[in-house]
Specification:
By secondary structure, this protein is α+β, with helices and mostly antiparallel strands. It is built from 3 helices and 6 strands.
């Protein structure tokens, strides 16, 4: 019983492969970008869940096309073409905001 999670935990977000997240913007910056329809800023921070395994989370930029080669390109991580998080805490530090896109690429739903 001691190993069970504490009562009244709140689910922050769920995550599955190919879902979209805004990474690296504060909630206020995100809300302002949505309000002003700042697609350029949103696009810069829009990432796809690429791969999930035990304490290893990969996100690739939504415009990135070299999926298989991306991890082998030395400058790809520094230029934020993808992110790799080795813990949930590191991921939460980037303030992930889950979004959904419609068939035109417009953000249609925010959060769960």
């Amino acid at each position: 019983m001691d190993k069970l999670p504490a009562d009244k935990l709140n689910l922050k977000f769920s995550m599955q492969q190919n879902e979209m997240f805004i990474l690296g913007l504060s909630q206020e910056e995100f809300d302002e970008a949505i309000k002003n329809n700042d697609k350029s800023l949103l696009s810069k921070h829009l990432y796809l869940v690429w791969s999930i395994s035990n304490n290893d989370y990969y996100f690739r930029h939504h415009l990135e096309t070299k999926n298989t080669e991306l991890k082998n390109i030395p400058t790809a991580k520094d230029s934020k073409r993808y992110f790799r998080f080795k813990s949930v805490g590191a991921l939460v530090g980037t303030n992930p905001i889950k979004v959904r896109l419609n068939h035109l690429g417009e953000i249609t739903k925010i959060g769960e």
